[in-house]
Amino acid sequence: MRDEPLRVHVGEAVLEDLRKRIARTRWPDQPEDDASAPGMAVEDLRELLEHWQHRFDWRVWEDRINAWPNYRAKLGDNDPLEIHFIHARGRGPSPFPLIFTHGWPGSFLEALKILPLLTDPGRHGGDPSDAFDVVVPSLPGYGFSQRPPRGGTTPRRIGALWAELMEGLGYTRFGAQGGDWGAAVSTWLARDFSQRLAGLHLNYIPGSYMPHVSPGSETEEERQFLRERDRWREESGAYGHVQATRPQTLAFALEDSPAGLAAWIVEKFWEWSDGRNGPPLTLDELLANVTLYWVTGTIGSSMRLYSEARGTPVVFAAGERVRVPCGIARFALEIPMPPRSWVERAYDVVRWTEIPKGGHFAAMEEPELLARDLRDFFRPLRESRA
């Protein structure tokens, strides 16, 4: 594998065009007697776009990205793809390699706050012996990774690309962490390359996950979860259904309208994160992620992963398991999240942590808590590395 350094810089003309498009937003109506209508409120989006147009500074985020070593590498024997990744070396006596995979509507930016905690724990109240070498790739069709020109880039294929990436970086045995799509990719990585993985850490269970279940063997807690999952999909899962069935049609609107793109993405961040004690993420953090999708033109290609994944659901036949030690960090407002017994039907769960706060975007919302759980989970597994 040959990797090339990457320095992120977006042309000023692209940013100026973005500001002009924001200024030309054509606004829909909202019934005066129904301010709580489903979806994002007009006034909330007006405030967000006003900040985006006049106060948000993408150059600040370029500097934050470029403070880490960024690379691109061509991966895959058939239809190879250029994959962007951060490769952050740890500071400690023996840093442990970890591949950290984001999801949708996030990006590799989700890792920026947790990277210092994982690579240099000695400077953040931890033990230097817990340091990690962290690899943070952008999923194909996300951010600065290439948009797949043809179909077939499923979570399972991405897991194989990640195994190739880690081997190319010289890591014969390593750990994997993931949430959202990162959980699905990491699960396939563990299923197909179990001999390479020392441990699997998840803060989400893939939405398509279905263990082998004998008829009538579900516990009441599991049945309650399945009912709650179905209710959540009915009330909040329309985005996933349209992205799995009509991603190309939706892409025309979102690739052309900054307002539409911001509403589609930020609504998910607000709904899925833990806002019980105030907004967990700043407007700048939210808009950095939206801007990344805009300047790279990747909302369409990112949504196609939903349709691609339909062919490889995380389903287990009788006797099939993920035979890698697994740690689960269950953040309080993660939705929908199954009980431990349901997960243990197919994952070898050796650690389960109930975390009292935080939501779907754990690395951004509660980086210290996620980093602590990662250190604790992988500490006894480091010596098993070949």
- Mean pLDDT comes to 96
SS class: alpha/beta
Main CATH class of the domain at 61-231 and 309-384: Alpha Beta
> Distance between termini?
21 Å
Number of strands: 9
Overall geometry = globular
What percent of residues are in strands?
Answer: 15-25%
Radius of gyration: 20 Å
Q: What name does the CATH topology of the domain at 61-231 and 309-384 carry?
A: Rossmann fold
Structure description:
This protein has helices spanning 12-23, 42-54, 58-66, 115-119, 155-168, 181-192, 220-236, 238-245, 247-256, 258-272, 283-296, 299-308, 340-344, 362-365, 367-378, and strands at 3-5, 70-75, 81-88, 96-101, 132-137, 174-178, 197-202, 322-331, 347-355. The chain is α/β, with parallel strands linked by helices and 386 residues long. The protein has a domain at 61-231 and 309-384: 3-Layer(aba) Sandwich (Rossmann fold), CATH 3.40.50.1820. Strands 1-2-3-5-4-6-7-8-9 form a 9-stranded mixed sheet, sandwiched between helices. α5 (155-168) packs across α6, α9 (247-256) crosses α10 (258-272) and α9 (247-256) packs antiparallel against α12 (299-308). It is globular.
